[in-house]
Every structure is written in structure tokens, then in C-alpha cells.
């Protein structure tokens, strides 16, 4: 068998293996957010996240948003010792709109937005923002995965 023929067989087998991987791989049913991470500005400037540095997904950061402030504001949920600061509140969003949540915590952890099955990694001392389409209607718990504490309820209304 010639070297050229062996090369063709190896390339064909490799292409078949790659195609089989994409066809038969299991689906991941959970969604990890790629949130905009910000820290308190040290020089009195505005907060900046990875999207501002060219490393984020376009549209992740509202810093250049030209919509009225009421439409583009993030609902901030503050976390101390794994518990919400104050009491857990209800954040209401209209179905078809955009859920905009910001989490500020004194410790690193993970926040789970039930129903949407979204997870947000929170860094100690910083603010993490996430936004996603409000496609599912109902009331969904937002919890601190480390402590299990209810941080808020997300209400998506028709």
C-alpha cells in the first residue's frame, strides 16, 4: 500500500471520528452564564467589565446602552455571609423582556437562577452582572448555592 493511500485512509478515519463526536455527544442541559464582571472603580471612573476590554461578548455590557435608564438598569442583589442583605425581594420582569441582575458579595460563591437553570460565579468584593431573555413565565428562586439561602424571587409576568 502506498504512502498516499495510507494518508487518505488516516484522514478519512479522522474525519469520520470527528463527525461521530459531534453527532453523538451528550447535550449539556445547564447554562453557565458568561457574566460581565466588574469591580468598584479605583480612580472615580465608571465600572468596566471584560466586554469593555475587548474580551466579552458584544451586548453583554450596558455601559454604552442608549435606552432609558429604567429599561437598562440592573437589579442589584447584595450578599453577605451567604445571605441576602435585607430580606429576599421579588424582581419582576415582563415576559419577552430582558432579565438584568447584578450580584455583589463579600465572598466568592455561586448563584443559581432556578427555572432558567443558570449559574453565576460571584467573586468576593466585586459585582457580577448577568442578563438573559425572559422567556419562561412564572416565579423562580434565585439562591446562593453555598448556603442554600433564598436571595430573591424572579417573577416573569405575561
Fold and architecture overview:
The chain has about 160 residues and is α/β, with parallel strands linked by helices. The chain has a domain at about 30-40 and about 70-155: Cupredoxins -  blue copper proteins (Immunoglobulin-like, Sandwich). It contains two helices and eleven strands. Strand 10 and strand 11 (about 150-155) form a beta hairpin. It is elongated, with a radius of gyration of 21 Å.
Question: Can you tag this structure with a few keywords?
Answer:
single chain, 158 residues, alpha/beta, Immunoglobulin-like, 6-stranded mixed sheet, 5-stranded mixed sheet
- How much beta, percentage-wise? 35-45%
What's the main sheet like?
6 strands, mixed
Characterize the overall form: elongated
Q: Give the termini distance in whole angstroms.
A: 68 Å
Q: Helix segment count?
A: 2
Low-confidence runs (pLDDT<50, min 5 residues)? 34-69
CATH level 1 class label of the domain at 31-39 and 69-157:
Mainly Beta
Radius of gyration: 21 Å
CATH architect. name of the domain at 31-39 and 69-157: Sandwich
